[in-house]
TrEMBL record:
Protein name (record): Probable phage antitermination protein
UniProt record similarity statement: Belongs to the phage antitermination Q type 1 family.
Keywords (A to Z) from UniProt: DNA-binding, Transcription, Transcription regulation
InterPro entries: Phage_933W_GpQ
Length: 139
């Protein structure tokens, strides 16, 4: 269940979430969720990756929908970075493979993916959303 977090008493800092773990779990959720279609992104390399059931952890539907809303906002503001998030977290494509496929430097891919992760993390923070998985993945 998605909860709006309460203000922390003065002097206490809000624990920081590990956005990469959040996106990893969201990616499993998004890939397994039949209501969401990222096939246009997958078209270029769909045959390269065998379909297997994931052994990675997923998130609950409430968390998935919250993160998905932020990822959708990323798509409307920074499409190229959104594409990196989908390739890396939904289709589990390595940063190196993405760089090779796009004929770009791997360092540039890493930087752009970090920007995308920061965007999603900031979006969740601005909406003051507390995820169910937060207790498990805090830094």
């Amino acid at each position: 269940m998605m909860r709006i977090s309460k203000n922390f008493p003065s002097g206490q800092k809000k624990p920081r979430r590990n956005i990469q773990l959040v996106l990893e779990r969201w990616g499993v959720w998004a890939k397994d969720n039949s209501g969401i279609d990222y096939s246009s992104i997958a078209a270029g390399f769909k045959g390269l990756l065998p379909y297997t059931t994931s052994s990675r952890l997923s998130c609950c539907d409430d968390d998935g929908l919250a993160v998905d809303g932020c990822v959708s906002r990323l798509k409307s503001h920074r499409y190229d970075e959104w594409e990196l998030v989908i390739r890396h977290y939904v289709y589990n494509q390595s940063k190196r493979a993405i760089a090779r496929q796009q004929k770009k430097d791997e360092r540039a891919i890493r930087i752009n993916l970090q920007l995308a992760e920061g965007f999603v993390d900031g979006c969740l923070a601005m909406m003051d959303i507390r995820l169910e998985m937060d207790a498990e993945i805090q830094n």
